[in-house]
Amino acid sequence: MKLVISGIVFLACLFNGTKEGSARLLDRNCGISTIDDIEAHIHDGKITTIRENPWMVKISTKNGLSISFVCSGILITTRLVLTAAHCIFFNDTYLHLGDYLIVDPEPDCTSGKCIPKAYNYRADMKFTHRNYKGRLSKFDIGMYRMEKEVTYSEYVRPICLLVDDQILEAKKFNITGWGKTKQEQPVNRTLQTGTVYPLNSSFCDAKYSTYTDRSQICVGSNSIGSCEGDSGGPLSSMMPYENTNRTFLYGLVSFGSDKCSKESGLSVLTNVTHYMKWIENVIKASEIQYAGNGGFWHKIAEVAL
C-alpha cells in the first residue's frame, strides 16, 4: 500500500442511504471484528491486525515447487472468497485465512470447541465475470470456492454485503492489503490499512486515459493508495446495523498507478454494490457438486446486472 499526495474532491452523496432492517445481509455473522488494545488500531497506511480484518484472505499460486503471494481477497461466506477477476488464475491457487500475527499454532479451545485460528485451503472452483476483458477494464470481479468450509472465529469472519439492492451512505473508506509500500520494496508481509475518500470519476479518467462508470469507484487520499499486491482487496466502511457496528464491503481494488510513489495518487475499484446479482448467481452456481478428477474447475458465471 503506497503513500500518495493528491488533491481531494469529496463526493459525499456517492452512496444512497438505506433504512435499517430494509436490506438483507448475505451472512448474518459478518463484519464484526476485535480490536486488540496491545496491537494499536493504525490508520494512514500503517500496520493493522487480522482480528480487525478477519475477512482478509491471502491468495497465492503454485508455480513448479514454489508458492508465491499474488493478490488479496475477501471472505464473504464460509466457503467463498471474493476478489478481482485479474486475480483468478488457472494454475494451483491457495487461500490463506487468519494467518497474520497468529503466533500460537494451536487451535482456540476457549469456547469448549477447538476452532483453528488459521486456514490454508486449495481453491476447487473459480469464477470470473464473462464480460471481463483484461486489466484497466470494467467487470473486474471474480470468486474462488475453497475445497472446505471454514469455522468463524475472531480470526476468521466474513465481511458484510447487503443484497436486495440497498446501499449505505459513506463519506470515507478503509483500503486494506498486503501490497507494496514503495515501488522498490517486495510485497509487504504485514497487513496494511488506511483511509481513502471518493473522488469524481473524471480524476481517474484523466489519470489513466479511460472511462469509468457507476460500476467503478475512483478513490484517493493525501497519504494512501493501492499498489502491487493490493489487487482484489477490500474498500470498506464501518456502519451501524441492528445496534452493532459492522464492516461493509463497497469495492475491490482493480487498478492504480504502476509507480508506488507519492505522486501516483488515484485508484480505481470495482463497485461491488453494482454486482450483487452476479454474486448471488455465483453463490448458487458454487453449490453444485463437481465430480471431477481432483482438478480445478473454472466457470464463467452467468451475468445478471
TrEMBL record:
Keyword terms: Disulfide bond, Hydrolase, Protease, Serine protease, Signal
Domain (Peptidase S1): residue spans on this chain: 42-284
Keyword Transmembrane helix: no
Gene3D superfamilies associated with the record: Trypsin-like serine proteases
GO molecular function: metal ion binding; serine-type endopeptidase activity
Pfam families on file: Trypsin
Stored CDD domains: Tryp_SPc
GO biological processes: proteolysis
Alphabetized PANTHER family for the sequence: TRYPTASE-RELATED (PTHR24256)
Name used for this protein in its record: Melanization protease 1-like isoform X1
Organism for this UniProt entry: Drosophila suzukii (Spotted-wing drosophila fruit fly)
